[in-house]
Amino acid sequence: MNALYSLFFVFALVLIPLIGVGAAKLNVFFGICIPSTALLVFLAGFVCKVYGWAKRPVPFRIPTTGGQQEPYDPTLFKQNKWDNPSTGPQAFMRMLLEVLCFRSLFRNTAVKLDVKNNVVAYASSKWLWLFAIFFHYSFFIIVARHMRLFLASVPLPLEWLEFGDGIMQIGIPRMYMSDILILAGLFFLLARRLADPKIRYISLVNDFFPLFLLLGISLSGIYMRYFAKVDVVAIKDLVVSALQFNYKIPAGIDNSFYVHLFLVSVLLAYFPFSKLMHAGGVFLSPTRNLPNDTRMKHHENPWNDKGIMPHSYEHYEDDFREPMYEAGLPLEKLPEGAEEEAKA
Questions:
Q1: Phi/psi at 113 (5° precision)
Q2: What percent of the chain lies above the pLDDT cut of 70?
Q3: Quick one: residue 252, left, alpha or beta (phi over 0 = left, psi -120 to 50 = alpha)?
Q4: Which of 20, 144, 186, 342 has the most CB atoms around its CB within 10 Å?
Q5: Shortest CA distance to 221 belongs to which of 267, 252, 189?
């Protein structure tokens, strides 16, 4: 049901700009006002989230590890420097591999119950890693390609990126590999949540909604490029006029553009308050960005009062044994005379 609710909501979002632009002629509202507001919400929400995470204290090391820690005697065991870093540069390398290669996801395993033999089996599962790579890198390339709409002249790296993305030269206009791979990644992630009973059971609306929203954005963008073949020059004029605060809507822009733009605006406004915010949170996660140097550096709590002596439960019971006994609380040691009374 959560998947149906999310799908219905995305369909409703598609109808809003279609009715607003097609019937009510609110081109300026959907072409300028909503995207500008969504961008402001995205920037403010993103900064507030990152600032909130950055100011939270991390009093001790809590990195997750996946290999041999640096031993006292390096001749005994070989340290796994990338999975169990003990220095800042090693932790930086692990974070780099995590962000660029999803290294922890590469070690993902699937759990299966063999009912016949009554055995729980663990097997390597690289499909999730592969399709996650497809989705994330395709999403990055698509966003980078869209930068040509905001720039007067396209930088050479963007031209190389676009050339490599469309090197297959299929169709007119040419098909981009990122358009196919992002759909493959999204459909796999969605099918995984629907097909696996365990994952489907714990999946909520906020798990399905981003997937359907990203699918809507991808499909509307593909429709604009390969079927509606919208006027890219007119769209760039709209973007440039918005950046110059000279708000005007060029004529001849297909309604599919407003659907695509509205869905992107919803994604921008939703991003800082959703699970998608892991894009910024991964850099501030103490389980990933800290070296495991607890053997080398002893941590002392800076706000501990050295004048306060430790007070064990044994001493606490010595101080309050009589009131605790009268209240009927269990005691490690009964008061004097209580044992004789109990025996009598």
A1: -100, 115
A2: 97
A3: left
A4: 186
A5: 267
